[in-house]
Write a structure and sequence with these properties.
Layout: H1 7-25, H2 29-42, H3 44-48, E1 51-53, H4 65-71, E2 77-84, E3 87-93, E4 99-101, E5 107-109, H5 111-114, E6 128-131, E7 135-136, E8 142-143, H6 149-154, E9 163-166, E10 187-189, E11 194-195
Parallel strand pairs: 1-2, 1-6, 6-9, 9-10
Antiparallel strand pairs: 2-3, 4-5, 7-8, 10-11
Length: about 200
């Protein structure tokens, strides 16, 4: 069935286009990203975690590169994803110098480093996952780019591993349409809110 003939896919496409436009127009991305990443680092889940997966930002996403550089200077094992055929591999990142431009123009681990056994990380070892996305709602529903990379990965993390999305407030919608295979976030952090949470209306 084509996207045009499928109302659900058509709605997702509309939301995706609007969210991408909103995100592109987001002012003060550096400052908003700093606030969002500080909220992430202040979470009890982050403090308790030993192994944390973080994404490396691309295009107009919430910017994580400064956070990554800082986080690697702490006591946590920082893991980043990379495209591996139709799924995501996981790599133990110890320096930003280990990254190079890869699939879809994303900074990814250099090819020659991926085969090193001590660099490969199983999803079951993750204690916390930072998740990107195109659009979210306050329930934690997520809309990605439609390729399913994160849905596949998140099905293999431990059930007790918190999933925390980072987004600008302009990426939040009243309701994201979902399907049975979609994975919900435990928290969505924006520059203005942490939701769903009692802190939802609290400014950072």
């Amino acid at each position: 069935m084509s996207e045009e003939a499928d109302p659900l896919q058509s709605l997702k496409h509309q939301i995706r286009r609007q969210a991408e436009a909103n995100r592109l127009a987001q002012p003060n991305k550096d400052e908003a990203s700093r606030i969002i990443c500080e909220k992430f680092a202040a979470l009890a889940e982050y403090v308790a975690a030993e192994t944390v997966m973080c994404y490396v930002d691309m295009r107009s996403e919430v910017r994580t590169r400064l956070f990554l550089a800082t986080a690697m200077g702490g006591s946590k094992r920082i893991v980043v994803p990379y495209c591996l055929d139709d799924r995501l591999g996981l790599f133990l990142l110890e320096s930003m110098e280990e990254l190079a431009v890869g699939t879809f123009g994303i900074l990814e681990p250099k090819l020659e480093l991926r085969a090193m056994a001590h660099k490969r990380v199983d999803p079951g070892r993750l204690d916390l996952v930072m998740v990107p996305g195109v659009a979210f709602d306050r329930r934690g529903a997520r809309l990605g780019h439609g390729k399913g990379y994160y849905d596949k990965l998140l099905r293999h993390v431990r059930p007790d591993t918190p999933l925390v999305a980072l987004a600008f407030e302009c990426q939040l919608f009243p309701e994201i349409p979902t399907e049975p295979h979609d994975v919900f976030m435990d928290k969505v952090i924006t520059e203005k809110a942490i939701c769903p949470s009692a802190l939802e209306n609290e400014s950072f």
